[in-house]
Amino acid sequence: MRHEQTGFPGKAISGGFHYSAPEQSKTPGNMATAALRMLVTEMMRAIGNPPVPVVLWNGLEISSNDGNAVARLLIRDRGALMKLVSDPELYFGELYSAQRVEVQGNLLEFLDAVYRVWPQHRQSTTEKNLLSPLFDSRRNSLSGARRNIHHHYDIGNDFYQLWLDERMVYTCAYFPDPDASLEVAQLAKMDHVCRKLRLQPGEAVVEAGCGWGALALHMAKYYGVSVTAYNISGEQVAYARQRARAEGLDGKVEYIEDDFRNMRGKFDAFVSVGMLEHVGTEHYLELGQIIDYSLNGNGRGLIHSIGLNFPRHMDTWTERHIFPGACPPSLAQMMAIFEPHDFSVLDVENLRLHYARTLEHWLHRFEENIERVTEMFDQEFVRAWRLYLAGSLTAFKTGGMQLFQVTFARAGQNQIPWTRQYLYEPHGITSGEHHGKL
Amino acid sequence: MRHEQTGFPGKAISGGFHYSAPEQSKTPGNMATAALRMLVTEMMRAIGNPPVPVVLWNGLEISSNDGNAVARLLIRDRGALMKLVSDPELYFGELYSAQRVEVQGNLLEFLDAVYRVWPQHRQSTTEKNLLSPLFDSRRNSLSGARRNIHHHYDIGNDFYQLWLDERMVYTCAYFPDPDASLEVAQLAKMDHVCRKLRLQPGEAVVEAGCGWGALALHMAKYYGVSVTAYNISGEQVAYARQRARAEGLDGKVEYIEDDFRNMRGKFDAFVSVGMLEHVGTEHYLELGQIIDYSLNGNGRGLIHSIGLNFPRHMDTWTERHIFPGACPPSLAQMMAIFEPHDFSVLDVENLRLHYARTLEHWLHRFEENIERVTEMFDQEFVRAWRLYLAGSLTAFKTGGMQLFQVTFARAGQNQIPWTRQYLYEPHGITSGEHHGKL
Fold first, then answer.
1. Is A124 on the interface with B (CB under 8 A)?
2. In a domain, B2, yes or no
3. How far apart are CA B22 and CA A37, in angstroms?
4. Which of A159, A311, B66, B283 is the most buried (most CB within 10 A)?
5. Residues A157 and A98 in one domain
6. Complex ipTM, two decimals?
7. Torsion, Cα of B333, B338, B342, B343 (10° steps)
8. B265 & B329 share domain
9. Tens-place pLDDT, residues A245-299
10. For B354-379, what is each residue's pLDDT tens digit?
11. What gap in Å lies between CA A255 and CA A207, rounded to an integer?
């Protein structure tokens, strides 16, 4: 939906903005130019003065920084500028998607320059709540979670197949070396998780939020465990069940289309990869209770989640348009899952650079399939997803987002690894005889 | 200081304790026996009914648990029983030290049986504060910290030399395998820390709480860095300076007898091994500020500390008699150091079983030198330290205490290891040519 654009210079800034023009610029045209210059300068100052000149619809170029410009920001109409000035975090994404702002130059370099200086990411949760009245209505209650997950994950398996790896793993991969392929890295990630959990043949594993089912299949196939996997995305569960049948693993893996909060039974291990971001910190006590209830006396678990260095909300645009209800936790916030139940945290690994690399692969494949994506959706969708993938890549690269893998066990459980050495020794699955089969 | 013991059966339990004696036991002696039985049963129930029969001064044996007894608890006088009933956590240590209670059988097996069932370790910080009016007066202000540290660390280097390793490292070791010697394991711990910090020759390191100086010397000698090390224990600093001179490293290592809060300068790395336990959670914001101020743009750090699965206080006896002011944090509490300053936590490793093993070595050496320790101090000191070492060993073994090594870096710092593989590859210092020299 496009907003009407006014062609009258100066109109949009009347009523509120007061500017004393210098003597020599008393014509209305000059006043507007000076005012526009001041508005843009203010806006750029608010986002930390990245080395990015701004070019307006009328050709006016404003550069508030003497550094080497990595790209230029083109603002195509006055209404777009007003929106950017009022809330750049929310409106940049909307206006970029609608082609009302454009980045001239490399989008990743532009985002890198902006993310490195923009102080918005230092805004605390409390401040943000005041600014975001919609926030509460999107909470992850049982029905809210289902609606939120449907928004992102049920837009078509065909779409995700265009740019994910062949196993459809839509979470951070683990690259044994940075040049590994995405396929090898997703396989290595699943092994890394299984080995951290020290899965033994015959054990029972419960998975909360199983995506298209790849990890559950991997655990059953290569580690000989039985898996009960929960997911509230109908499209993902249908796909996962089909794959389990095709691989003859439907006796070992049960996919349940339900909320993890309805989980039942006792298990040796709990695993959740890429679900916690959607749970919401206010539900962590409940999540911990469910894990506590689900695990037997020898139980242990692993949670893999996007995280933050300190509590804050996802940027407004991503939260509103891409991932409704998403709320990555800080490590202290994550501890609210474990501490009330006397779980021991055994290991935390931060893999943020691996997520940046994963997103490089996804973005590359997305761009390679750009014509197909445009046919499936439209130009606005393409631009929104390009910005989401590129923005996430940049956030992981510049340290604005983290990826935490947290391994935990019951307090008195001494069947824990003596050191982490074993995780770094060659083993059969990714480096040996199994590898060729996959 | 011994408390007067009353020899009058029944007196100590009058005024508050009401017991309806059965018909056949109406003599005062019988009443007292039944009442004693009930008191002991109550006390044992309160600590979770460990499989430990209790034997009283008069030969009465009370067993509230049918399990296999691992040891018997002998209570030598009525006053001791009353104290145990009123506050077993505080008084067990005092009475054990004074030989008014005795463990008949293996002390470690006794403690293991008790710690596994005793619900006291589930007591929250809030509840404990109410019970511990002395707590506030022992806080770690600049002067309080100095007094508290003096209490434990300045009781004589000669004493610690009897049972620590040759380098006088009084923190959890890292055993590459469980059978490694204590000497090898302390060396491996120092290397593990240095490698996690990725120290490079010529860099400047600041150490907060340096003990007898071994890590600072190790970093300077094998990693070529310059070290500024803070400690408020006068005896430790004197010893450390002497060793630095003896090894010709006094140009590379500066030991400063001062509180870390007075730290000045800019450094490439911050390291603190075994100090955080003495800082107190209320000072973590300040600690984080000091780290933030001390680290340059490429800065990173490591904090190695005893920790807990959830916030609670050290047991009252240890806090009062062994480690005044000690307050190990939960992981969520530790995050109060990092989160306000946008530090990224890169790695957390829980080494609790390594601390249990370290304490086994210390306890063994302590017992081997028991005559010498008794000459230096007295029987009460010997028993208090035996209980402290054995109790700590048991807490780490049964999951009541944790040992966290937390590695962190500035948020935008991308000079971080791609994986942790490098930590598990052979290197020159503990496995190669350097090893023979140490």
1. no
2. no
3. 97
4. B283
5. no
6. 0.88
7. -140
8. yes
9. 999 999 999 999 999 889 889 999 999 999 999 999 999 999 999 999 999 998 9
10. 999 999 999 999 999 999 999 999 99
11. 9
